[in-house]
Design goal:
- This protein is α+β, with helices and mostly antiparallel strands.
- The chain is built from 5 helices and 5 strands; from the N terminus they run αβαβββααβα.
- Strands 3-4-2-1-5 form a 5-stranded mixed β-sheet, sandwiched between helices.
- A hairpin with a 2-residue loop joins β3 and β4.
- It is globular, with a radius of gyration of 15 Å.
- It starts with a helix and ends in a 15-residue tail after the last helix.
Length: about 130
C-alpha cells in the first residue's frame, strides 16, 4: 500500500462519528510490509460504540480493524496481564498514533507501556516471535 492509500483509509475512518482516535501497527509501522501484509488499525470509539470488523478490503489489501471504546481496550490490557500474553499491550506500546484529537490514544499508549513494563500478574511474559516480545 502507498502512503496515499493509507492516508485515504485513515481519512475514511475519521469521517465515522463513532471514531475518536486511530493507531496503526504491524508491518507498515515497523517498515516490513510484504505483498501479503494486511494493514492493522486500532480504532478507539466513543463509549458504547465499539464494533467488530475483522477485515475491510481497500486498494486490493486487507485492512484489519479493531474498534473498541477505551474501557474495552483497557479490558484487553488486563486480560493480557492475566493470560500472560502481551499482544494488545505490545500493539499499543509500539503502534503509531495517526489521529488523536482528544488525547485518548496517547493516554492508552502510555497505560499500555506502563503495564507492559510491569509484566503479567505472575511470572514472565510468554515469548512470541510473531509479536517480537
Amino acid at each position: 500500500m502507498t502512503k496515499q492509500q493509507i492516508d485515504s483509509i485513515i481519512e475514511e475512518l475519521q469521517q465515522d462519528g463513532r471514531v475518536v482516535a486511530i493507531l496503526i501497527t504491524g508491518s507498515y509501522v515497523y517498515g516490513t510490509p510484504t505483498d501479503d501484509s494486511d494493514f492493522d488499525v486500532r480504532v478507539v470509539t466513543r463509549p458504547g460504540d465499539g464494533w467488530a470488523e475483522k477485515y475491510r478490503m481497500r486498494f486490493e489489501h486487507k485492512v484489519e480493524l479493531f474498534c473498541n471504546p477505551p474501557d474495552a481496550i483497557r479490558g484487553y490490557f488486563d486480560m493480557n496481564r492475566r493470560e500472560n500474553k502481551a499482544h494488545a499491550l505490545h500493539f499499543w506500546t509500539h503502534g503509531m498514533i495517526v489521529w488523536d484529537p482528544t488525547g485518548i490514544a496517547a493516554q492508552l499508549k502510555d497505560e499500555a507501556r506502563g503495564l507492559l513494563e510491569l509484566g503479567p500478574y505472575a511470572g514472565e511474559w510468554e515469548k512470541s516471535e510473531k509479536h517480537g516480545i
